[in-house]
Structure prediction request, 378 residues.
Amino acid sequence: MLNRTLFGEEHELFRDQARRFLEEEVIPHHAGWENDGIVPRAVWRKAGAAGLLCPAIPEQYGGGGGTRLHSAVLIEEVSRAGTSGIGFGLHSDIVAPYILAYGTEAQKRNWLPKMATGEVIGAIAMTEPGAGSDLQSVRTSAVRDGDELVINGQKTFITNGQNADVVIVVAKTDPTQGAKGTSLVLVETNRPGFTRGRNLEKIGMKAQDTSELFFEDVRVPASNILGGDGKGFFLLMQELAWERMQIAIGAVAGAEAALEWTLAYTKDRKAFGQRVIDFQHNRFKLAETKTEVQIAQVFVDRLLGLLMDGQLDDATAAMAKYWTTDLHCKVIDQCLQMFGGFGYMWEYPIARAYADARVARIYGGANEIMKEIISRTL
Prediction:
């Protein structure tokens, strides 16, 4: 691969730190967590102690004091390790940034330091049984009653749902106003009326707890609103470019990892008296794959640079999200084929990656929605 100019020495030191943690504390135990359907809270605290939670949150709030480049490094290493279902990214780079950007000083000081240590685990509840990519259709309500909000509704497919201590809930504070009546509300999971449904059984990302959440007359202070009453939809739109870039970063890193696993396997495995890589068809397929992954990396690095400069627009982020996740699935499918029957065995990383990658074309806004966003610029 080409030398990348986006990252400096401090980022590469952080990369080494992340890689060591994953090798020592995550990879050896990951299969057990897949069976359990959840990552133990003790591991979250170890990640916090290692400086791997909330790396881009300022030090004054307990974070690592880095930038989104540090977050990108961590996303890449988690994806390359085949452990993308551990839930750290959503906690550190979606939930925490919402609180940092839109929370009051009291909210930031209350939640962010504990999120950085892993004492508190965060989740965000957007999706409902009847509302996925169409966030304007959410039905969960947060009705004002004096100085409190009374929340009723149901959410599903919520990452970190079983572990979460605090959830950012997308709810309608004024159902008559459509998108303008949507708010983001911080809900502590020890509130009466809050219950967790079952830990959902998924095709992939099996170590990541993913849940249904139920709200029945859950009361929270009205001051738990993030960023102002009725501002929720606007705030969600503000953050979506970065959220979609996170998916793209992970997709390219995952595709590169799949290529590396396949190169190692095809150089070692023999068929009909020669190495698998020595068949011209396989070499050409691998050459195509390496080229496409390289193109994707250059594209995503360019957009990450634009993001750091505050110049990345929503449509271009949507391009990155849809194209890289489509490519990731294509690459893994081609690579798995070269493993033959072993590629279908769960013990091989390529099999896990095949199952894990598919959801990225759905979450963060389905790829069909990405194309709709892009088409508006034509």
